[in-house]
Amino acid sequence: MSLLIKVNGDERTIERSLSVWDFLETLKLNPRKVAVERNLEIVSKSTFHETLIEDGDQLEIVHFIGGG
Length: 68
Fold this sequence. Notes:
Elements: E1 3-7, E2 10-14, H1 20-26, E3 34-38, E4 41-43, E5 58-63
Parallel strand pairs: 1-5
Antiparallel strand pairs: 1-2, 3-4, 3-5
């Protein structure tokens, strides 16, 4: 059963429920270098492994880029 979610305003379909950590890895993002909001609440990095993405979730993902 696939799940319909929104990521940064764009609809996406994922095949199954994933943890936030696993989802970020599928996007090729380093989970240590992003901030995630799920359904208008910040997800603590310490819970990325346990927080599951569910059907209808809305995620906002911000990644940090170093430079100088």
